[in-house]
Design brief:
Order of helices and strands: EEEHHEEEEHHEEHE
Number of helices: 5
Oligomer: single chain
Distance between the termini: 7 Å
Strand order of the largest sheet: 1-10-9-6-7
Radius of gyration: 19 Å
Helix content: 25-40%
Low-confidence stretches: none
């Protein structure tokens, strides 16, 4: 399997909280999350968590090419949580956490796993791309943010409602009927979206963090077939470059999104 990677921090002066890496026949992409100002909960920070969890996953994948991906993720979450449970309040909803996307080529099949909002694009050649994502976090955020509709930005009312929305969102994390993310509880791995496809049906696969997937939604710069064409022509860095160009053009727009860390992995030649 041939793998090309690119990642870029969303803002200068801040660590990149995404992680991407590969071992023979497997790729891992994580998108870190946490609450700004939560240093009192975890002295290590979000970037530390994503990099530690990512390295642990890669290590396990390099040693275990037959184990169920959910089991591999559960053991990695537990191992990472144990590393800082004595010094940090890892159970607090605001402590570091991460989305997870893993793929593994094994015995003629591509196994995949997603936990929270990343995107896996399966290149099926003439049949067109198939996009897999775990949209439960997006659905939960949309529901929790509904009270903000129509509330003027920059007002005390907006701040109060936003705080209540954040509290509501935290309450849905790693809960039935809410959404699941890698954090301190290895049982979250059992809730991951997973599947397997014959390698013979695939020309390649692409993995994108939600910061990189903005090229399709909300920016609408291209569609998913266009993403595959861009990857073939310019690689993962070409996708990220287009996202950054859109963000640069939106400078000064009060409704523009804050630039996010963006990460892409592109895998081709899947069969040995």
């Amino acid at each position: 399997m041939h793998v090309s990677l690119a990642t870029n921090a969303g803002r200068a002066g801040r660590p990149n909280e995404d992680f991407v890496g590969a071992v023979p026949d497997a790729v891992v992409l994580l998108d870190g999350a946490g609450i700004p100002g939560a240093d009192s909960l975890c002295s290590h920070g979000v970037a530390w968590y994503t990099h530690r969890l990512g390295r642990t996953l890669l290590g396990r994948l390099s040693r275990d090419d037959v184990g169920d991906l959910r089991a591999i993720l559960a053991r990695a979450i537990l191992e990472t949580a144990t590393e800082h449970s004595d010094t940090c309040d890892i159970a607090d909803p605001s402590s570091p956490q991460a989305t997870v996307l893993m793929v593994r080529a094994h015995r003629g099949a591509l196994d995949y796993l997603l936990l929270a909002d990343t995107f896996l694009v399966l290149d099926r050649g003439p049949a067109g791309p198939q996009v897999v994502t775990d949209d439960r976090e997006v659905i939960a955020r949309r529901a929790c943010s509904a009270p903000l509709d129509g509330v003027p930005r920059g007002t005390p009312q907006y701040d109060r409602v936003r705080d209540s929305c954040v509290t509501a969102m935290r309450a849905r994390r790693n809960q039935p009927g809410g959404y699941w993310i890698a954090k301190d509880d290895p049982r979250a791995a059992e809730e991951a979206v997973s599947g397997s496809l014959p390698l013979a049906d695939l020309t390649g696969v692409a993995l994108l963090s939600n910061g990189a997937s903005r090229i399709v939604d909300p920016y609408g710069l291209t569609d998913w077939p266009g993403v595959l064409e861009l990857l073939a022509a310019h690689g993962p860095s070409g996708v990220i470059r287009r996202v950054r160009q859109a963000e640069d053009q939106a400078v000064g727009d009060p409704d523009a999104r804050v630039p996010d860390d963006a990460t892409v992995a592109h895998c081709t030649h899947l069969q040995r």
